Amino acid sequence: MEPEYRLTQPAMQDIQDISEYLAEKAGFTQAEAFIQKLNAQFTRIARFPKLGRLRDDLQPGCRMLFVDRYKIFYLPSDRSIEILRIVSTYRDLSTVFPSDN
Asked: Domains in the chain, ordered, with CATH?
């Protein structure tokens, strides 16, 4: 059985926002190529869930892996991977993962 991943609503919104931005700045072909890279990375994460760097500081069990200038944040579980967010490397992570403190 092929490993699975699931996109959260915020992750789906991130992808939409990123693809719209890339289409506007670099063209539709570049945006489409980036989406293909993302999908390939999601599949890779599903196959190798411990591949990314552990980011317990953001959320317990959270892991992070790069694709171009973006960070993919995800939570591995026994059966699948939950893609939490896709965030620009320039973005302040405290706005994406607010602290409870």
From this structure: 4-89 (3.30.2310.20)
